[in-house]
Amino acid sequence: MRILVAALIAMACWAAGVQPAAAAPGDGDWLAVVRIHPQPSVTGPEILLGEIAAVETDDPQLREQLAGLSVGRAALPGYGRELNVGTMRVRLRQAGFPERLIHIDAPDSRFQVLTRAQTIGGQELAAIAEAAVRANADRWLQELGGGSLAFACPIPDGLTLVDGRVQVSAERVSGSPPGPIIVTVVASVNGIPQRTITVRCDTRWLAEVWVVQTPVVRHQVLDTNSVALETREFTSVPRGLVPASEDPAGWRAIRPLSPGTVLAGGTVERVPLVWKGRAVTIAAQAGPVWVSAPGVALEDGRLGEVVRVQNSVSGYVLLARVVDVDAVEALVP
To answer: How confident is the model over 3-18, as a mean pLDDT?
Structure first.
């Protein structure tokens, strides 16, 4: 009875055109054997078969082609991605390989592929930024007129990069001291830029400046008893700062000043060469001849300024440019 049933089943299969399954090739019959590493890892950005497995075949060209096959995108540096044997077979078929003749020996049907990573510490990044700032210090001090600079570059978070030869450099320095300086730092792996960060370095300027020592009244001409040089620290350059090389006797207060005030814009002005109500000499050119006349200044004036003066002989009021102490040059239309 059993023999009859088996015969009927065989006849039914033959009538339906179903052929018996072929036996799987033995180890020596595979075109290639792909043995997945126990802990596969890649550099990225692609998962290459040659990085996660050993390819065994007698055909060198086939070995090279299989090793260079991408079977998926790698995870971010330091992270893993799950890969399965089924996906690998799909990639083999898509690439035109006879995947039925390629054996995949994996620890499991699903496994993790880690993207290898390396870390650049925040201290190293801050040191690179500070070095870039210091490289510009001489130029900045020349523009500021002397003094010294102090720098502080906070330590940023470290960078996680793919595995490979790392080069970190400061690509750009923006801003000028005192105040914030922005340094753009680029990290490259094997010559290819991978990450860019900005490091903000705070700079302070230390310089000698004139500082009020005793109370000063409005329009008081300064001297070394009322002001003295002191080293001060600045996070921004005061507008109109009086240089340390200036003689304080050439300046006067434009408002009452208290001790500790730095001489800068809004506090002092140049001492006038011509004073309101004082006698002046008015010079004028008539062709090749210069003539002069006595006069009185109707307002204060500093070198190069135009003021009103009155001719003491004629009584005329005219405009004249200050050229020296108590001396003006008439502006002839």
So the answer is: 38
